[in-house]
Every structure is written in structure tokens, then in C-alpha cells.
Design brief:
This protein has a five-stranded mixed beta sheet. Helix 10 (206-229) packs across helix 12 (260-277) and helix 13 packs across helix 18 (394-412). It has two domains: 19-157, D-3-phosphoglycerate dehydrogenase, domain 3 (60s Ribosomal Protein L30, Chain: A); 177-456, no CATH class. The chain has helices at 8-11, 20-37, 42-47, 58-61, 63-66, 68-76, 86-91, 177-183, 190-202, 206-229, 244-253, 260-277, 293-303, 309-329, 334-337, 343-358, 364-376, 394-412, 424-437; strands at residues 14-16, 50-56, 100-104, 107-111, 116-118, 130-137, 140-149, 155-157, 281-283. The protein is α+β, with helices and mostly antiparallel strands and 457 residues long. Residues 186-451 form the Serine dehydratase-like alpha subunit domain.
């Protein structure tokens, strides 16, 4: 099996909501296509008359609700997720008569709603979320690229391996939890192992990596703070009201109640998730649809548990390690695994974060137990968003995933971690098999489950 060579900063990406697989991934794919057609011979560029984007699978089924059309246009215009203005992104394609000039050589090609094709027919592809971009001259195709959006904003271009053209080498290679634990038997700490691999992958210094993790936390917490302030109705036809500010005010009036702790945590998770649903800037953790779990827990850890920056960084590395293992051995994509791939993974990552923060020595067995419990109790969870919007049930599921993460942490640190019968590697295998067996109706297509209750909203 290939070695994990994913960077912390590939797993945790900064970008606009509401969906990493439907927004960030397609934006990156369209930007890549823009770069490639910009390198075509001048003679080919001069023939070009149109750009066509064909969306398949869940990108077609729920793409409009997720903003895939806007994301593709943004990518073709040269926008990138980390620097995108969410207000400007939401404005794209609002007027169906407006087109947008994409420079191909010295001439603009105008793209708009006519350029986007939400294909309902089945497409022979190894991944559920597929997009095909074509540069054409009349009926003639001048250039074509096929991309797969595999969750968490990760994309693969057809013909390239998942890890890119050349996989980087790391000092402590592993592909499973058992292989990772084997490196730790000789006194190496989990923190040092993960940091050494990250330094090798990115070429960055320890200080730079720490600073970038701090930046990720700050972006997460900015989303929480914005969500705690913003009131009103979320975008889309559901007209769902924001709840986070109400919950937050309620929690502050119940400071002496045993319930206030959970209400604060729920408010923080809903706040970040509602910002994601509104198309605001969030951090994939590991996806945009699950971008309320880790931000809520880390906000709680900083402001209620008062952990210092070094502790929070160590917790983030542990969380990333769990995300790596799930992505490598199953999937973090709702279109592949259902919601267990998104909220289930986020909950397991959150449990690992809390466990590492609470234990200075970072016992790998306890971290593993917490993550395993987090995944185990999300197995089979469907992804059935109403109207294709990342709102119902997605927003509340972020809060529920965080509460489960906290309970998994409590169970794992109760002194009984050694009694755990199911390993993390085993539960990830079960997760993959469950996702494979799950009907596609329950994997981000809005064709079954809660999605069918849309008429009642």
C-alpha cells in the first residue's frame, strides 16, 4: 500500500463554503484548466470559440445548491479558494444574462450559464464527482481535461496519481495506524513524528509550520465569531434561520447550569457551520460540510479549557493524522461514503484533538481509541441534504458530531482504552465497505432520505 504523503495544509484548506467537494474542488479544477489552455500553441488558442463544463454525479445532482456553477466560473476567471471574496463569489451568475470573459491567448471567451451542463446521464468514471472541461471551436474539441473532486477540496486530474506526479518521501512512512505505532515503539513521540513528516513534505521549518497552524486556528475561530454575530436567513430556497447567536446568548445566561457547557459547544459549531452554509470563508476540517466540528471544539479548548498555543497545535496534528488515515484508506467524501465520511471523520478527528490536548504525553493508544469510537458511531450515516444545500441536516450534524467527539474522548480517557476491541484500522475498513454498499441515493445526490422532505419545508 502507498505511503501517506498528505500535508496538514492540504487537509485543512482555507476557502469559501458551502462545500469543499462542490465549491473548492471545482474551483481548483477550473483554475488548473485555465492554466493549461493558457499554455496551448497560439494557433490553437486563436481557433477557440467556447468553453464547456460538463458536471456528473453529485456535482450535477446538487451542484446548483452547492454553488458549483459559481465556483467553476470563478476558477476560470483565475480566482483561488484562499483569496476569494465570498461576497463576489455569491454575486456570480445571479443575472443569467451576464457573461464573464476568460482570456485564451489575446482573446476573451465569454462563459455563463450556457457554458455549464448539469448532466443527468451516467458517466463511466472511477469517482462519483466528475467534471469534464472542454475548449472548443464549433463542434471541434481543441483541449479537454477530466477532473475528479474526491472530497475535502482534493482533486485528481485524469491520468495523474492521487498524490500528484511524484509522491514525496517522508522520514517516517506509514499507511495505517499499526504502521504509525510501530515507529513510536523506540521512544519517538507522536508530535515529533508528525512534525518531521510535515517538514519533509512541505520543506518548511518547524517555526513556519507552527505559525501556519496558528493561522488555520485563527481562520476557524474567525468563522465561529462571525457566526455568533450574524443573524437572519441563510441563502437558498429553504429560508433556514440562523440559530447560533440565539444559542450563544442562551448559554451566557446559563453560566451556572450544567447544560451551559453543551450549549456553548453547540453554538460554536453551529456558528462556523452556518457561516459555511452562507458561503463564508471557512477551513475544511476535513471538508467544508464538516467545517463546524473542529472549529467548535478548538474554540472551546482555547476559551473554556484555556489550552496554550503549543497544546492546540499538538492537538491539530493528532486530528490531521486521523484525517490522513481515513482519506488514505477509505474516503472523506460525502459522495463516496455518505455523511460518515464527512461528519464521522470530523468527529474522530475532534476526539483525537481533545485526547491529545488533555494528555501531555500523547498516548497513541488512547488517541486511537477515541478516534475509533468517533467513527464507529457514525457508521452508515447518510448524506441527504435538502435541496442540495449544506443546511439541513448538515448544520446540526456538525454540533452532534462535536458532542460525539467529546463523549468519545471521555470514553477513551476513562482508563479503559486498552479494553477497546476494535482497532482504528479495522473500523476504517468497515467504513469503506459500508460506503461501497450504501445506495448512491444516500450519497449527496438529494434523491432519498431527509432530502425528500423538502416539500414540507
Amino acid at each position: 500500500m502507498s505511503v501517506i504523503t498528505t500535508s496538514v495544509f492540504d487537509l485543512f484548506k482555507i476557502g469559501p463554503g458551502p462545500s469543499s467537494s462542490h465549491t473548492i474542488g471545482p474551483m481548483k479544477a477550473a483554475f488548473d484548466f485555465r492554466q493549461r489552455i493558457g499554455q496551448l500553441p497560439t494557433g490553437v488558442q486563436q481557433q477557440a470559440s467556447a468553453i464547456h463544463i460538463h458536471l456528473y454525479g453529485s456535482l450535477s445532482a446538487t451542484g446548483k445548491g452547492h454553488g458549483t456553477d459559481r465556483a467553476v466560473v470563478a476558477g476560470l476567471l483565475g480566482w483561488q479558494p484562499e483569496t476569494t471574496d465570498p461576497v463576489a463569489l455569491l454575486a456570480l451568475l445571479k443575472d443569467p444574462t451576464v457573461t464573464y470573459p476568460v482570456m485564451v491567448g489575446d482573446e476573451p471567451i465569454h462563459v455563463g450559464p450556457h457554458s455549464l451542463h448539469f448532466e443527468r446521464k451516467r458517466y463511466d468514471s472511477p469517482y462519483a464527482n466528475t467534471m469534464v472541461l472542454r475548449l472548443t471551436a464549433g463542434e471541434q474539441t481543441l483541449a479537454e481535461e477530466e477532473y475528479y473532486s474526491i472530497g475535502g477540496g482534493f482533486i485528481i486530474r485524469k491520468g495523474e496519481p492521487e498524490n500528484g506526479p511524484v509522491a514525496a518521501s517522508v522520514p517516517y512512512p506509514y499507511s495505517t495506524m499499526n504502521e504509525l505505532k510501530a515507529h513510536l515503539k523506540n521512544g519517538l513521540s507522536l508530535d515529533n513524528l508528525l512534525m518531521a513528516n510535515e517538514m519533509a513534505l512541505t520543506g518548511r521549518t518547524r517555526a513556519d509550520i507552527n505559525a501556519r497552524i496558528d493561522q488555520l486556528l485563527e481562520f476557524m475561530h474567525k468563522a465561529v465569531r462571525r457566526g455568533l454575530r450574524h443573524k437572519g436567513i441563510l441563502p437558498g430556497s429553504i429560508r433556514l434561520s440562523r440559530k447560533a447567536p440565539v444559542l450563544y446568548q442562551q448559554a451566557k445566561t446559563m453560566a451556572n447550569s450544567s447544560d451551559s457547557f453543551l450549549i456553548f459547544l453547540n453554538a460554536y459549531c453551529l456558528a462556523a457551520s452556518e457561516e459555511n452554509a452562507a458561503g463564508g470563508i471557512v477551513v475544511t476540517a476535513p471538508t467544508s460540510g464538516a467545517s463546524g466540528v473542529i472549529p467548535g471544539l478548538t474554540y472551546l479548548a482555547r476559551h473554556h479549557f484555556h489550552y496554550d498555543r503549543a497544546t492546540l497545535r499538538a492537538g491539530m496534528l493528532a486530528a490531521a493524522m486521523i484525517g490522513f488515515l481515513v482519506k488514505h484508506n477509505a474516503s472523506i467524501s460525502g459522495a463516496e461514503m455518505g455523511c460518515m465520511g464527512e461528519i464521522g471523520t470530523a468527529s474522530a478527528m475532534g476526539a483525537a484533538f481533545l485526547t491529545r490536548c488533555a494528555q501531555p504525553t500523547g498516548s497513541i493508544e488512547t488517541i486511537e481509541a477515541a478516534a475509533e469510537i468517533g467513527i464507529e458511531h457514525h457508521l452508515g450515516m447518510t448524506c441527504d441534504p435538502i435541496g442540495g444545500y449544506v443546511q439541513i441536516p448538515c448544520i446540526e450534524r456538525n454540533a452532534m458530531g462535536a458532542v460525539k467527539a467529546y463523549n468519545a474522548f471521555l470514553l477513551a480517557t476513562s482508563g479503559a482504552a486498552s479494553f477497546q476491541k476494535i482497532s482504528l484500522d479495522a473500523v476504517i475498513k468497515v467504513m469503506k465497505a459500508t460506503g461501497r454498499d450504501m445506495s448512491t441515493k444516500y450519497k449527496e445526490t438529494s434523491e432519498a432520505g431527509l432530502a425528500l422532505s423538502a416539500t414540507e419545508c
